[in-house]
Amino acid sequence: MDAKVVIENLWVKFEGEQGNVQALEDISFSVNEGEFLTILGPSGCGKSTLIRVIAGFQSLEKGKIFLGKKQVAEPGPDRIMVFQEFDQLFPWRTVIGNITYALKVNGLDKTKREAKANKYLEMVNLQEFARAFPHQLSGGMKQRAAIARSLALNPEILLMDEPFGSLDAQTRSILQAELVRIWQKVGSTIIFITHNIQEAILLGDRVMVMSSHPGTIKEIVDVEIKRPRLPETPEFMKLWHKLYTLLETKRFGENGRNNVLPGKD
Ligand SMILES: Nc1ncnc2c1ncn2[C@@H]1O[C@H](COP(=O)(O)OP(=O)(O)OP(=O)(O)O)[C@@H](O)[C@H]1O
Ligand SMILES: [Mg+2]
What are 34-47's pLDDT values in tens digits? Predict the structure, then answer.
């Protein structure tokens, strides 16, 4: 399989009044075309920094980033980020207006914008709320709209930084299933950050576990469990415990916000 994202010997340092932070130290890995990679790691280990560097928003100290064979250092339409916060939409535009506007900025023909926006709204089950404004939506619906907008732009790479982190457990579980379904349909390459071990296993083809200060890769683990994946199966639990141990969680939940036992999350 062809590598879609290649990170070579990446170093990122933040210099501050309280001293320097080596946020990332000599990170190298690659993500295959169409692959779903989840990144798991304790708070402050450099997950967001890593994804921001890939997006081109964060400057680096050393290292190289390739998309296919092309080296990149700046943001581009080939990479789209989805964040944790619910306020990613323009509040003065309707849901569909948010999507058609993004398509307009990307240069899509006026006649095609609405049809495309509707197609992606349907994918995230939000067609009934096309004419609603963001303040009329729940957190989960806003997140769906933001995901629909990102997908409508047909990014080659979707960079998701804890996009479901603020959702309640039920909405989160619905969106996890929807994201997998949509990903299987559109075939984007996805890099998805989470604190949640169960989420990392449910979604990823592989899980990259990071450790902190300095931020390094601890291990990249294959998820060889057939989809749809069920947390209560022995193979799921076995992998959950492996990742839990890798995260070096000393006390229950210490290193993660949602690291409760599989099946209870
Ligand atoms: N703009 C910045 N200036 C200075 N230090 C920063 C900056 N951004 C991040 N850091 C530091 O770099 C390290 C990695 O931060 P980062 O936000 O990438 O962690 P994270 O793994 O995403 O954490 P979380 O899980 O809490 O979101 C932390 O020690 C953080 O304090
Ligand atoms: Mg972060």
Answer: 999 999 999 999 99
Q: Which residue, among 238, 198, 242, has the nearest Cα to 220 in the 3D structure? A: 242
14 Cα–ligand 1 center, Å:
9
Taking the CA atoms of the chain, what radius of gyration do you get in angstroms?
18
Q: Which of 216, 206, 201 has its CA nearest to residue 47?
A: 216
Q: Whose CA is nearest to atom 28 of ligand 1?
A: 44
- Best residue for ligand 1 mutational test, from 22, 45, 81, 208 (most atoms within 8 Å of Cβ): 45
Q: What is the pLDDT of residues 78-98, one digit of tens each?
A: 999 988 887 889 999 999 999
- Asked if 80 and 159 count as a contact pair (C-beta separation under 8 A), the reply is yes
Listed in sequence order, the DSSP H helices in 124-168 are: 139-152
From residue 23, give the alpha-carbon distance in Å to each of 12, 84, 145, 235.
6, 20, 31, 33
DSSP string, 166-192: TS-HHHHHHHHHHHHHHHHHH--EEEE
Dist. CA 87–CA 201, nearest whole Å: 27
Amino acid found at 65: I
Kindly list the distances between the CA atom of residue 106 and the CA atoms of 17, 73, 188, 189, in Å, as whole numbers in the listed order. 40, 20, 18, 20
Please report, as a single letter, which amino acid is at residue 97: G
